[in-house]
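RsiW-degrading membrane proteinase PrsW (M82 family), pasting as requested.
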Amino acid sequence: MATSPPHPSYPSGPTDGAPFVPSDTAGPGTAGPGTAGPGTAGPGTAGPATPGPGTTGPGTTGPGTTGSLRHAHWWHRAWVRYGALSTLLAISGLVILALVREETGTEGFLVGLGLAVLPVPLLIAAFRWLDRVEPGPWRNLVFCFAWGACAAALIAIVANSFATRWIATATADPSSADTLGATVIAPVVEESAKAAAVLLVFLFRRRDFTGIVDGVVIAGVTATGFAFTENILYLGTAFGTDQLTGGRGIASVTAATFFVRIIMSPFAHPLFTVLTGIGFGIAALSAGRRPLRRIAFPLGGLLLAMGMHAMWNGSSAFGEYGFFAVYAAFMVPIFGLLTWLVIWTRQRELRTVRAELPAYAVAGWLTPAEPYALGSMRARRIARQYARRHAGRAAAREVARYEAYATSLAFLRHRARRGSPGADFAVRERELLGELWRRREVARPALDHAARITAPPVPVTPPPWPMYGVYGYGHPSAPYPAYTPYPAYNPYRS
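Structure tokens follow.
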């Protein structure tokens, strides 16, 4: 494979119609038609070359491979890490389940579970909608939700209880200890525990963490899991209080807790942690150019999340209407501002897709209509529906994967043009182009159809009418030649 600097100006492509040979189907030392690296395209190139000896393709390890071990240690293997992480989350879940049940009782736990689960599907659906441009894998979201609901909740319960008891013992003032624990200890502990999930995805799933929207989605899903467990605890405790005091109906503690936590502020914890996610998202966009930003922005987002959380928890100390004042003056406006920011970023991502993919259309990897269709959510949906109607659900899934790979390719090229291509740019670009090429027979007709349906009408200017004369077609227009009158009749003139 011809090596080239990771510059995306001239992607190679299958311009002569020869079949593309994926790197996983050719033997060592063989090459597909054409040249390989970005920046080396020329007339008649057919596709990237297959890596030969001394080059590294996706998932290969050969004599020329650098930075990887032929025989990795057992603790470096993927199944060991997945198993350890799953075991940690499972143990955390069992412990938090036992703690919450002990605190609320069996009936309180069941009531709290039934009420706390109500906002979860809505919040998850909202974050998935934000992530529709470049959808991340479900396993990342499952991990984040499980971390928030199990590990982060367990850390928060244990650390908050220990810190509050220590402060109460040191100051001999339990009421002050509770206030200090809610306004200082809880925000620091809880936001740090939730931010750990964002940090883990940022470090170990770097390909899936490419910008602000990814940070918002990962942080929001983590906080949704945390709020789910916390709501079980609060609602179950409120139900137990009603059992002791005889509270019923709207006047009960359970109803009041449900109104405040489920109806008014289901977005509170996601809103706090989203600030941390935005910091990590900006750091992802700044990777490779300014290393200081990779530390400063996540820490800044975490500090903002802690500050908002502290203000929210301390709103009850501002007087009888302090909670409603903080809710109306800070929570709702900030929620609206962040919602606008995320939606604007989502639209910006679509514009990036439409701006970056034409280079691959020129090289022959895509049809001319595909960049427009892939840059429109409506066109994407129409393409999937077209594939499902004509070829079944499997074809629709392939079109969805094609759309996701094309979006990742556009973002990869955009980062490279901005000066942060990453060390694996050429390998990753080749991998994504191979995934697109394998699905082209199914995806191209659907996307071309969607582009025709959604393309804006092109204004057509009619040709100008020919010049007409005063007395009909072709008659010369004014000014007319001067009229000379006939001379008078003279009968004597011969």
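Note for the archive: The mean pLDDT is 81.
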